[in-house]
Amino acid sequence: MDLNADLGEGFGRWQLGDDEALLDVVTSANVACGFHAGDAETMRRSCAYAARRDVAVGAQVGYRDLAGFGRRFIEYDLNQLRDELIYQVGALQALAAVEGARVRYLKPHGALYHAVAHVDAIVEAAQATGLPVLCAPASPLATAAGDAVVPTYAEGFADRAYRADGTLLPRGKAGAVITDQEEVVARALLMVVDQRVIALDGTVLPHAVDSICLHGDTPGAVVLARAVRAALENAEVPLTPFIR
After folding, report:
1. In terms of DSSP H, where are the helices of the chain?
2. Hey, which residues does 54 pair with through a beta bridge?
3. Are strands 56-61 and 28-32 parallel, antiparallel or unpaired?
4. Per residue in 53-80, pLDDT tens?
5. At 243, is the secondary structure helix, strand, or coil?
6. pLDDT band at residue 220 under the 50/70/90 scheme
7. What phi and psi values does residue 175 have, to the nearest 5 degrees?
8. CA-CA 20 to 30 A from 240: which of 22, 43, 80, 154?
9. CA terminus-to-terminus distance, the chain
10. β-strands 196-198, 204-206: how paired?
């Protein structure tokens, strides 16, 4: 099983999360590519940290929305969005190469992750860059990528609440982000060992995943990540990047 986290989400003098500490825990790093967060120095530093720890680097691409942290839906022309996603991947690839790392996958961030209207742009960007996509299982993006013969890997969220239809509860809703350590660990184990997730209303859903995401901006992110990793190791679950 893979553990991934969103990293490199600072910008200029503003820093978010403890990237170095998280990189001691996770096996894959979704590095912000400068549009929703991140800048050239932060991107290069994140890749350097990851390379030293043999952590896989992925391009976390998003809308051009620094002020909203990429969590606001933005109307786009498909071709413009596709090219902006390719642009973000290319920037990260150049900076990763300097540090001896390679960008191995693409993961949309925030509102783009859930934007059904923009799955074609994401798929075309993945085709153009030759990268597989990390996304939610059975999502419109996973379906569109599969139809286009773009490899996909499925991820689950240990620190986010699910609705009965298998989608995430929007962040603006009460209980959307889970910070209780025992609950986060229990949810991770259920997804990894039993391939299930329990929705907010108690519905038990099948949820086969290749990776568990732990958000770097969740309160207590490093402590939660360490607890999840320890629990998986105690359960004798091998931890390794989902793609090398």
Report:
1. 19-23, 40-52, 78-98, 110-114, 119-129, 140-147, 181-189, 221-234
2. none
3. parallel
4. 999 999 999 999 999 999 999 999 999 9
5. coil
6. confident
7. 85, 5
8. 43
9. 13
10. antiparallel
Give Cα 114 to chain centroid, integer Å.
Answer: 12
DSSP state for residue 192 in the 8-state scheme? I
* CA 188 – CA 213 distance, rounded (Å): 9
CA-based angle 41:118:142, to the nearest 5?
Answer: 90
Tell me 173's DSSP state.
S
The first and second tokens of residue 28, run together, are 């894959």
Angle at 193 between CA 191 and CA 199, to 5 degrees: 25
Taking the model in full, what pTM does it have? 0.94
Helices and strands per DSSP (H, E), number in the chain: 8, 9
The DSSP result for 22-53, as a single string, is HHTT-SEEEEE-SSSS--HHHHHHHHHHHHHT
Residue whose pair of structure tokens reads 């732990």 in the numeric block:
214
Q: In whole angstroms, what is the distance from residue 171 CA to residue 144 CA?
A: 25
Sequence-separated (6 or more) residues with CB below 8 Å from residue 134: 4, 30, 58, 105, 106, 107, 152, 153, 154, 155, 211, 242
Is the separation of the CB atoms in 190 and 198 below 8 Å? yes
- Distance CA(38)–CA(93), nearest Å, equals 14
Residue identified by tokens 């793609």 is 243
CA distance 197 to 121: 29
Angle at Cα 31 formed by Cα 242 and Cα 74, nearest 5°?
Answer: 110
What is residue 78's predicted lDDT score, i.e. its pLDDT?
Answer: 96
Cβ atoms of 190 and 158 closer than 8 Å: no
128-151, pLDDT tens digit by residue? Answer: 999 999 999 999 999 999 999 999
